[in-house]
Protein 1
Amino acid sequence: MSSFRTLDDLGDVTGKVALVRVDLNLPMKDGSATDVTRVEAVKPTILELADKGAKVLLLAHFGRPKGQRHSTMSTSFVQGDVEKVLGKEIMFIPEVMGPVVEQSIGILRNGDIGLLDNVRFWPGEEANDPEFARGIAAHGDFYVNDAFSAAHRAHASTEGLAHHLPAYAGRAMEAELKALDAALGNPEQPVAAVVGGAKVSTKLDVLENLVGKVQHLIIGGGMANTFLAARGVDVGKSLCEHDLKDTANRIMDQADHAGCTVHLPYDVVVAKEFAANPHSLRVCNVHEVAEEEMILDVGPQAVEALGDVLKTCRTLVWNGPMGAFETEPFDAATVALAKTAAALTEGGSLTSVAGGGDTVAALAHAGVKDDFTFVSTAGGAFLEWMEGKDLPGVAALK
Ligand code: ADP
Ligand code: MG
């Protein structure tokens, strides 16, 4: 894992200008952030560099301005939230290069922090224009990338800068890469993968990558319906991609050849209407789903058996809820399996890594988000990593 440099490899940075790519794309309501998790994630890197006497310039995108200045998408909108989390005043700099940036650097004292404007105001960012990257790089002495969540994009601030300046992974990036390596790069075996969520079509590459790497592939959620249907099970009115029958069968064949056991539910929770606690709710065997019923969660017997599978494993990687967890009681399987995984993690027998927008929400709902070894909030980047792709922002650090 020493294939990239970290802050530990920095020499004396006193008075040096650090260009630090962070994720400040915060969810906003009425002019302030509703969730500052992303700022908290990059706080250690920012404060470490500031404490060491660097002049820290934060570089981030905010919204999708598509290469133009947009009055509602300036990073100045998150300045207050960033200051609150850091416990420090920072200087907003309404450019990313040129004389204004140069003058601001002159005003900043060692250990001070500046916030550059939305890097996506300039078309060179998303085009990964080397001239644009060179223009930003001219202001810095070194580059730190602490935005894993943007690492699947080859943009100037996430990839290009690494070609013009000495490049380092920040602390959040370092932690993410270590956790991901422990889960799929170089995991302790046996490894189980839980893949759930709504649709197979959005996670085909994930499934194909996993069958070659894990010993147990646990399929839940709406995706399980597609696999069950491919095996000839009548899934009634369930969410199901019938046109992916051949694909599902091919994945199961690939798993067979690779020695990966595919686990599909054998009992399920069904209802005739999708609502909280519907009258038509019942638990049945997968072969007993009626024509007008929908499978909305994995059944209790299957969940117990899946918990037993996890007990035999050393590593777990999880993306996608097991059922329609936003609506009770279809959260039961997700909650139960998440609690089992959390307990095994606490007991020391399991390394557990999870990610995905709805997955993070589901683990928080189960009350175990902090009990997993690592929970990635990176969304798209996490999924591309699960697909086995080389992320450009990570590759550029190597
Ligand atoms: P993530 O964001 O973690 O990658 P997905 O977006 O793939 O996860 O899937 C999450 C969605 O899948 C949730 O909104 C959940 O309600 C839905 N879902 C899970 N199981 C079912 C099911 N059996 N039927 C319909 N929707 C389901
Ligand atoms: Mg989702």
Protein 2
Amino acid sequence: MELNTIERDDIGAAAENLVVPPAATRKVFVKTYGCQMNVYDSQRMTDALAADGYAATDAIGEADLVLLNTCHIREKAAEKVYSELGRIRELKAERAKAGREMLVGVAGCVAQAEGAEIIRRSPAVDLVIGPQTYHRLPGVLARARSGEKIVETDYAVEDKFEHLPQPKRAELIRRGVTAFLTVQEGCDKFCTFCVVPYTRGSEVSRPVAQIVAEAERLADAGVREVTLLGQNVNAWHGRGEDGEEWGLGRLLFRLAEIPGLARLRYTTSHPRDMDDELIAAHRDLPTLMPYLHLPVQSGSDRILKAMNRRHMAKDYLTLIDRIRAARNDIALSGDFIVGFPGETEADFEATMQLVEDVNYASAFSFKYSPRPGTPGAEMGDHVPEAVKDERLQRLHALLLKQQQHFGASLVGRTIDTLIEKPGRQASQKVGRSPWLQPVIVDEKAGEIGDIIQVRITKTGYNSLFAELA
Ligand code: 5AD
Ligand code: SF4
């Protein structure tokens, strides 16, 4: 995923802040890989850099600083970064010939996992900065500009969110009517396939007051839909305004009180952390969208155990029943891994059976990719690549069929749609259904930010077409 930002609205910035930051003389190009948390982090880094005099650009050729915000979750993700660095090296050389410097930074999970190795492998890289130290970016850059090669990957003791500058209101408005808000970072679950506990560190929850203040700023800038982010978002907990310990359910009830915020979502959840209050939030909060991404990874108890998921397939199915009893129109999404070490045909069949039982509205499926340093990588009995390919195809076909059925089931129905942005064609606008599908409507159907009622007329590959109801 690529994130491009344009220059700030300086009038808005000046009106809002008494101290006007130094004029933007340098330019930064940010490229984002991986999950939504990286998208959010890239925005916060862009904000920190804006305060440091860097204007964002979407033209890599004119950048004084190129920042790759990387993903380490699967092998391919990390390899993409190295091949991009190869291309950037040539650009950097061209710019040097023209007498201009180009700093290259690697942030995100590859930075955290590989550290100095990145500079050894790609000498064009000037700085490597892990996700817990983004608030130090301006200081780090000052050192990099004076020629130092920097690797900053310790887990900071201070709260980075407290130190990261908030974006200007004009910038928030420019970013649109939907927004991400990280409430929790890191993971203590240690699933044996997963690199996250090593790259993002242990679970940290942001305090209630910080989250509420950020959500209010978003709402004030016209944001209608907020997605709370966390690697293990439903493990979020914090002391609430009443002095009591809150879980994610309570937090959602609180955020639902903020005027203007019409839609709330959260991702990604672990089945073990779906507590009663969170399920009650799905039952009682119309603002909480009826869509839940609840990864299970496998339908085989043997594999779930080897993955250290700490629940069985039956627990997951019972949980889904309880969630559906609370909110019967909820659509489910999940993540699956095929070809985990030791996975037999029978284990895989159990996954297929679970998918049949749940009936997903959408889901992601991946081939197991051994991550260095994780217990899974050390396990014996790795599944041959060809077998993984074949299983992935079968699972993917089933999930796609379910997704298409779900889309088709909406044809003829009238649903709420949040108008998000102009469409690819000038005659269209693109909205979002409660279940996260893009909805293509007539350009005149409503203004960006409106929630309108539309009747679904037909389905596209991954989208819905609708007319004003
Ligand atoms: N190999 C394949 N898929 C993985 N995921 C996480 N780690 C791996 C891995 N080593 C998948 C899981 C997770 C999603 C974000 O990525 O399904 O839920
Ligand atoms: Fe990784 Fe999620 Fe398991 Fe944590 S709960 S280790 S982030 S898969």
